[in-house]
């Protein structure tokens, strides 16, 4: 059972939380850039080891063999820059810096030079598919980052058009139609992919809002809008881990059962809600915790405070309650709703149960001494 709980905790902690759209883009980069690099490195290695994969490849192409060593240097550079790009993405972390953009456009220019020579100098049959595959790879890997996508595909796409013009000694209408069609495919494909990406972000935001609402429901008392007992105990556990002492007030509405019997349970609920609102207005700052402990009992935790500060909060609660003047015809201490409070201060080595027990004892003394008061 404990092992299962630990596994669930590890799974929950491993979930990536995106604070904004940029975080989602960074996550996408960290996933897609390794694949993008793999494709670039794979094609570069095929070119470098062409004579092993295809016997006597260099001899078969005949002309312009003097630029082959430079092609080899360029493909080696593509491999090096692609691996550096992955390293930078993971170290920076997963963001396209100007240096990463420069590496990306350099890789594209290197491929453009190679593609131009493959098409114009040697008219190799794989040259066109290579350019198209590289462009489609960039589309799949970078569609959510338009700047990076344009920096990579623009040199390659223009090189294809330039190579066609060079081969045909002018603009070839049929090639231009194919080139424009593929351009339209790229633009529309990027639009569709981006829409899916944006919809995924919207769904993520909706899920976060739902989780936030569920979290509020899990940690908030539905009737009073204060923290519930579970949330209060977690808050106390965290406070006890801190070095600074804190004070705690336990509050009980005087003769609340009689109030319920006389005015009805719905009026009793409304009374508790008003008392809770009054307590939230009486604490020092929003960092102070007001929680419903159970029934008509509430707990107030004042971090980094003294007993004197807690007493001041107790005085404000009584003053505000007196000004609010909620009628209580069956109370033995007043014609209005009153509260009794017990105050205590945390000690070294304290526990949640221990500090609550001391506050409860102080509350009991306040009730024994006539209610409508507070005791330390």
TrEMBL record:
Gene3D superfamilies, alphabetized: 3.30.70.270
Record keyword Transmembrane present: yes
Cofactors required: Mg(2+)
Classification via PANTHER family: DIGUANYLATE CYCLASE DGCM-RELATED, REGULATORY COMPONENTS OF SENSORY TRANSDUCTION SYSTEM
Alphabetized UniProt keyword annotations: GTP-binding, Membrane, Nucleotide-binding, Transmembrane, Transmembrane helix
Ranges of residues in domain GGDEF: 244-376
Pathway: Purine metabolism; 3',5'-cyclic di-GMP biosynthesis
First-level EC class: transferase
Domain of life: Bacteria
SMART domains reported for this sequence: GGDEF
Organism: Lelliottia aquatilis
EC number annotated for this UniProt entry: 2.7.7.65
Ranges that cross the membrane: 33-54, 74-92, 99-120, 126-144, 149-167, 173-193
Catalysed reaction, written as an equation: 2 GTP = 3',3'-c-di-GMP + 2 diphosphate
Protein name: diguanylate cyclase
Xref: InterPro entries: Diguanylate_Cyclase (IPR050469), GGDEF_dom (IPR000160), MASE5 (IPR033444), Nucleotide_cyclase (IPR029787), Rev_trsase/Diguanyl_cyclase (IPR043128)
């Amino acid at each position: 059972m404990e092992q299962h709980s630990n596994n669930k905790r590890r799974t929950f902690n491993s979930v990536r939380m995106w604070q904004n759209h940029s975080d989602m883009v960074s996550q996408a980069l960290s996933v897609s850039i390794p694949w993008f690099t793999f494709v670039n490195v794979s094609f570069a290695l095929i070119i470098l080891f062409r004579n092993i994969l295809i016997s006597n490849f260099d001899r078969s192409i005949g002309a312009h063999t003097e630029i082959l060593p430079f092609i080899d240097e360029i493909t080696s550079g593509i491999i090096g820059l692609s691996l550096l790009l992955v390293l930078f993405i993971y170290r920076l972390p997963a963001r396209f810096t100007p240096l990463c953009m420069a590496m990306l456009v350099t890789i594209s220019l290197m491929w453009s030079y190679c593609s131009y020579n493959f098409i114009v100098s040697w008219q190799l049959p794989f040259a066109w598919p290579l350019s198209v595959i590289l462009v489609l790879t960039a589309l799949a890997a970078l569609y959510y980052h338009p700047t990076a996508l344009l920096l990579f595909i623009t040199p390659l796409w223009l090189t294809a058009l330039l190579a066609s013009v060079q081969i045909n000694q002018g603009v070839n209408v049929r090639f231009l139609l194919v080139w424009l069609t593929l351009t339209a495919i790229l633009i529309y494909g990027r639009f569709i992919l981006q829409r899916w990406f944006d919809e995924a972000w919207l769904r993520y935001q909706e899920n976060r809002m739902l989780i936030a609402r569920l979290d509020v429901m899990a940690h908030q008392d539905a009737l009073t809008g204060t923290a519930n007992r579970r949330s209060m105990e977690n808050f106390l556990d965290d406070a006890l881990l801190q070095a600074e002492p804190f004070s705690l007030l336990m509050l009980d509405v005087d003769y609340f059962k009689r109030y319920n019997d006389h005015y009805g349970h719905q009026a009793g609920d409304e009374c508790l809600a008003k008392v809770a609102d009054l307590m939230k207005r009486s604490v020092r700052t929003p960092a102070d915790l007001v929680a419903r402990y159970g029934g008509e009992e509430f707990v107030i935790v004042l971090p980094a405070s003294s007993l004197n500060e807690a007493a001041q909060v107790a005085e404000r609660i009584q003053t505000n309650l007196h000004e609010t003047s909620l009628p209580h015809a069956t109370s033995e201490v007043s014609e209005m709703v009153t509260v009794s409070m017990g105050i205590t201060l945390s000690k070294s080595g304290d526990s949640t149960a221990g500090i609550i027990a001391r506050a409860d004892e102080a509350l009991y003394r306040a009730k024994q001494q006539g209610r409508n008061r507070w005791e330390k």
